[in-house]
Amino acid sequence: MTTYASPIGSSLKRVDGPGKISGLEKYAADYYPDNCLWAGAKRSDHPHALIKKIDISPVRNLPGIFAVLTHEDIKGANRVGVPEMDQPVLADCKVRYKGDPVVLVLAENKTLLQEAIDKIIIKYEPLPAVFDPEAALAENAPLLHENRNNKNLLLGGKVIRGNSIAAMSECDAVVEADFQLPWQEHAYLETEAGVARVDEEGILEIIASTQTPWRDRNELAYALGWPVDKIRVIAPYLGGGFGGKDGITVQGLLGLAALHSGGRPVKMWNSREESFLSSTKRHPGQVHYELGCKNDGTLHALNCRIVLDTGAYASLGGPVLALAMEHAAGVYRIPHALIEGFSVYTNNPVGGAFRGFGAPQVLAGLEQVMDILADKIAWDPLAFRLKNAVMRGDETGAGVWMSNSTAIIPCLEKVQEHPLWTSRQTWVSQAPPYKLRGVGIAAGLQGTGYGPMVADIANAKIELLPDGRFRIYSGVADMGQGNNPTNVQIAAEVLGQTTDCFELIQPDTLQTLPSGSSAASRTTYSYGNALKAAALQLKERILTRACNMGMGLYAEDLLLSSGRLYHLPSRREITLGLVAASMRPEERISIYSYTAPVNRYPDKINPDIRAAGFPHRVFAFACHLARVQIDELTGEVEVCDYLAVTDAGKVLNPQLYEQQVQGGAVQGMGYALWEDFKLDRGELLTRNLATYILPTSMDVPDILSIAVETVEESGPFGMKGIGEIVINLALPAIANGIARAVGQHIFKSPLTAEQLLLILEMRPAK
Amino acid sequence: MSQVFLPHTLDELWTKKQENPAALIMAGGTDLLVKIRDRKLPPAVILGLENIAELRQIEQQDEEICIGSMVTHQQLLDSPIIQTQLPVLHQAVAVLGSPPIRHMGTIGGNICTASPAGDTLPPLYVLNAGLELKNAAASRLLLIKDFIRGPGQTLLSSNEILYKIRIPIPAPHSPGFYFKVGQRKALAISIISMACLLQLAEDNRILDGRFAWGSTGPTVMRFPEVENTLIGEKLSPIVLGKLGQSMAALVSPISDIRASAEYRRLLVSKLPLKIWQSHFSSLSAASGHGD
Amino acid sequence: MKIAFKLNGIRQEVDCLPDRRVVDLLREELGYTGTKEACGSGECGACTILVDGVSKLSCLMLAAQLQGRSITTSEGMSLGKKLHPIQQAFVDKGAVQCGFCSPGMLMATVDFLQRNPAPDRQQIRAALSGNLCRCTGYQKIIDAVERAAAEMRDEL
User: Fold this and answer.
1) Of chain C's two ends, which shows fewer C-beta atoms within 10 Å, N or C?
2) Rg value, chain A, Cα
3) Which CATH number applies to A285-451+602-762?
4) CATH superfamily name and code, C2-74
């Protein structure tokens, strides 16, 4: 009898590794169908303008130009967006940001495509534009979207607990600060890409780099006016997503192109510059914090005001605001709080989903005022956090009930006992000449799923193949986080097989089942739960059938292991292939639908904020520590050491867990130190990777990762989602470290060398 | 569609140039092809120099080191001659671009692109590099400081190529340093760069000091009158600090997407201290002096 | 223009525009999509290939420059189904997440380990500094190169 090592808990190699490292795995950008046309958009060069005239006559009959399309060629509603459908596939009466697509060209090759796009003439009547959210909220601000009761306010609301105004005056110490958080570009390596074709039966088939294949299908049906059951969307492995492919990117234009290409396939692949221009970004924020505590270290009152610039279209600007408000009190008990949030339209590029989804913006502010407040009452910053950190059963200052696994205190304790923290004073005192050192920490959380009002459902399908191997029908796109390999690991665990017995079908609206977006830290949690149950169903069926075949009387006497079944009492064995061969096709397929639990309390929250996702139920927690060294001659900040202690439930695969921690921390460092997205009146100044600075391998340290393993009973094998918590804390941990080194906090990020040096220069001379 | 020619000899090159007077010369391609993609240059016939072997040599002669214009940055990094004789240049190519860019980019290309931020330029200025320019008929020699006139502007005629870089071998005991501040540690255009060549006596008295600055003005800048004030001074943080202040008052940096003029000027005032920070601070610690 | 060169050990003769970008020639004409494009301007390294064993950026190369050269891409590193030790190290050490940067990282590593078979981690970081990754934070890629270097030294 063969034995096998239990897959769950071991660092099994990702099954997608070999294909990707041999260059054989095909991403959406890698498809070059025969006879394909190239599609590209002519985009607005005004931030806000009426479209007076579109003149395509110079290009329509150029050689190699197959078609030139405008909004008039769109049969459907010409609107996409979730939850608010306010974004046109091709602009109709007006453009709302520099980058709004107006005309779609189909050409024989990329050169002719670009030449044609350049020749199209569009007459605009510029409108007054607004680029600042506060200005957009003002009385006579130019309106982006007509007929909206709330004008430029996409979503606004308050969370009120107790009476924070009165409570603030009861505090022994109060700190107030205003934080400015910048845009952040996803900058995935694979830019938005796809191919599309309408086949002989009128099926519009799209292969796209997308986090949302089923939602895309619904949106495309509505926007383009094509029957939903005649649209097929396939999501291969993505070359990165991080939220930037959460929704329609090129799919609308591709679908439109394919509906007008005479049956020829069409390809669209954004250049890096076009990706910068057209893709969504992390919402920039202006966050005001006022935090007060008593001398005994208890937090007492919080006032927080969050203003997010959601740009020209809604995208996920409502849910991001709701999550920001929910996370604004972090991991702390605060009896009195007023949290106010505004998500505002401007004529800037579109703010949308980006890993962290509002949490990075508020934790950046909260975790810095926590440090300032701790100093004010002469408390150690870590002890101050421990004093106020929630346990299971507590409510956070935002009124969110910690009903599920909550291990922020063990995370904080792990940092507290770690040499990187205990030796901090010695380390700081050993700063070399012309260098300043500081050690900073930050703590936080991240809710998983969609909140109380939007069902988080995953439908798993797994099949026993006639030869005894298995096929998993993946429902959730894999953008690199490894949910596909993890699915294999989960199924392998339940079915007692090695991972090489599994095939994977990538998400495909024709072959696999709707399972929600690859987002919100939910991919393994939700689909994994569904798959675990589906695999268990299948296993029971296999065991029962084996019994029927004479292997024994009771299913529980049978062991399923590595391609064989064993009757333990008698040592009889049979191959899985034989059992499979005896089963009808419909018996070999197992489907299971899983719906994630939600937090139905409190119900007194503003209904629009609630619908947008307040609150969540299952949270991941973390405490990060950064040791920073600043060069006094240049202002450059070096992160010398970085420790991430995470509570994401049980670790299913330590290597995969570390992949997320390391990658998220470095992406967070980029947000903290280098990624200075610059706009001037709606015009991108940082428009490519030469000017938008991502960290290279030489800029970042090794990340030390410690897992605090709680059991999250609702998660498959006790896990919780880890995808986003990992990015949330780099900025405040580094900012706190820098503040300790230079003696003051910096409220505008990124914390560039230029800012640092100018601040150092203004310090009083020693 | 554009023609691309990759001649194997200079004679072939001159012929092709004559047939295609508007052709663009391509060295490593890392600047040229990016400019064409960004539509800063129109598509044109391209004449690539990569197959002309005589442009790829590094030789040490009696008093000078000769570097062919098509020598790549990686070749410079790998060359024992450059490492031992011209460390200031070696340090600069070590922080230029990234490994694949160093495999493709050339010293000649860096010079003729004449970006104020070009990493090889400040070292070549402190080394008083001479440039041999050649056309079909003749050669001429120019000092690099005379060759580069402004951002992207050189005295290269349309029928000429940069043939060789001729660098006088520095005096013995001449430490050289290159410090670059970029927005990150690799793949970075310099915000400020500083090359320096010092001649020191045994007691660290300065016999000669040359400082060249990148990204501080339209071309690399040197301030001989300030350099002269160093002669006879003992190398110390105070001397270096004063030097920085003097030069900071003289540079004319711009504000651009990477940095403000104010930051650049501040960097100029402080960068000379990097010499102390990286190489001499152990001296200071040993002698018990603070900075 | 007719261009003759070797690609992953196999002789190729193509007829294409002389100024066709090598990354496009590889991906579109020849079907080798292992070499990726992520910026088109030399800033990211995703298009890294080996030209006569030296790592170069194929988005900044023209087809004419291939004449007589020997090109290696990620597809050419495996021997049939068996992964090259460097590829295997990437898989074993978890250095591949979304995988889009991985072929470029691989080719940069192949070049580097030829030059420096016994590097330390800082040298590895410098060697990969022309290849951007947005998923891994680089650490496991460094681990993989360290492992690959050790493997390849033992096999010598």
Assistant:
1) C
2) 27
3) 3.30.365.10
4) Beta-grasp domain (3.10.20.30)
